[in-house]
């Protein structure tokens, strides 16, 4: 056959069509088979019969996930204090420079554990608050190193089956109460509600933060997992807020201008080294007008230098460098007596406006987001507070407890949010918490102490629980809208976190975990199985999880929880919202039968 122009038309080769078709079918079949294997290996969850529906009581049809049967083995007993992202087993992969090995280094997905972390042999339900502040069961935190090394400083002592906490510390061997009394004399704002939130860098066993609780000050006690074995675990076992962390090469996981006070009691952080980046980070997270308290080298070097294995000339030089750096950051000496020195961050921007362009450290440029704090590298520059927020400084913000209910100025950062929406949110959470207390009678009693709101917005749950004997770690997703500044402006505490990774804490450190549609928000990024296994790791035996979730996820969560040896029940949401359910789960207490490595 030819075209009109006389050129021949090329016919398809029929002999080639059949083999090519066969090859195409074989490849499609092979891809389908491999995809099935990959999916079954990637996750225990299977989107099977996704067209199938569940009939609600009202007769509405709601799509659901189906799940294959599963079970999780026990981890070996040497994983009883497993902290995946700060695991000493992996330290050799990272350098000692600036102690980067102590920062978060999470294992890749193919190295993550799919087993249940066991409690130590002889583990008991923790002693209840407030008695727990002074004692804990030895078998719950069975570590002797810190007891032997710090016994002369009265950090803790072992008596019988318990660790006792006398309230001593390196700089306050006579007791933390006397130490804080002196501090209050130097900083009157600690007495009148002006200071509400604090951070303790290098916290020991958190005796300073524990003492401040009775004085109306809520402290985040921060320490790395290092040779001071289990500092943070001791703190949380006592019922005192704490988190694993270290000032090294990355920003701390807190927003800017948040803490009213920062404290270092011989924490041995080299404040003036590496361009002053560590002190610059303290400056970033301190609220305008906030206080930085330092005790230990080089404070009071004239009397103390002989006990520091140094010379008076070296200590004088260190003190002068520190004072020079603080002045360049617009801090002013506020008060000083004996071993305690207090500086105050500039309450306004007048000092920063006067800084010359060629001064060091320079002001950060606009490309560096002040609140970016999730794996954000430290930079040797000054984060200048946003001048449009004139009521967020310590001298302007409401005093505690009025601060809890006053509309935070920084809520204006979010489109459409204002005083009315803030009050509606607060009212909503009062209703939710009242409902939760009916579902879990232990909530609101001293049977539950350490609480985590895993995906808060404005800290509504924590605010509604303020009058109860609990404290709440408010977690804001590093991928969500950054509402954590508002949480701090209310006088509450919290941290950024990505739930695709393990949290910075020890196992068995929380009595109650609360989730509000976390899987609806994050299941496209985070594998549900690993999030739930992480919840099991950090939840104490006999502790609870309150899971508010859409009907689409509830059955899957309940099935995984059963595989983790949890007992769960479904409850109706407030106002009988048919689109969501509340899953109330309780973790069982069990002991390891597995001594082999896994």
Could you please say which CATH topology of the largest domain applies here?
A: Rossmann fold
Q: Using the coordinates above, name the CATH class of the largest domain.
A: Alpha Beta
Number of strands: 21
Percent strand: 15-25%
**Mind telling me the C-alpha Rg?**
28 Å
Low-confidence stretches: 1-19, 30-63
Structural class: alpha/beta
Fraction of residues in H or I helices? 25-40%
Strand count, sense and barrel status of the largest sheet are: 7 strands, mixed
Individual helix count = 16
Spatial strand arrangement across the major sheet: 10-9-8-11-12-14-13
Number of domains: 2
CATH superfamily of the largest domain: Vaccinia Virus protein VP39
Describe what you observe in this structure.
- By secondary structure, this protein is of the alpha/beta class.
- It folds into 2 domains: 131-392, 3-Layer(aba) Sandwich (Rossmann fold), CATH 3.40.50.150; 402-587, Rossmann fold.
- The chain has helices at residues 14-42, 145-150, 176-186, 207-213, 231-237, 277-285, 301-304, 312-328, 350-353, 402-405, 419-439, 460-464, 484-489, 518-522, 528-538, 551-563; strands at 45-46, 53-55, 61-63, 66-67, 135-137, 157-159, 162-164, 197-201, 218-223, 242-244, 259-265, 286-295, 331-337, 340-345, 450-453, 471-477, 494-497, 510-516, 539-550, 566-572, 580-587.
- Helix 4 links the parallel strand 8 and strand 9.
- It is globular and about 70 Å long.
- 43% of the residues are buried.
- The model is unreliable at 1-19 and 30-63 (pLDDT under 50).
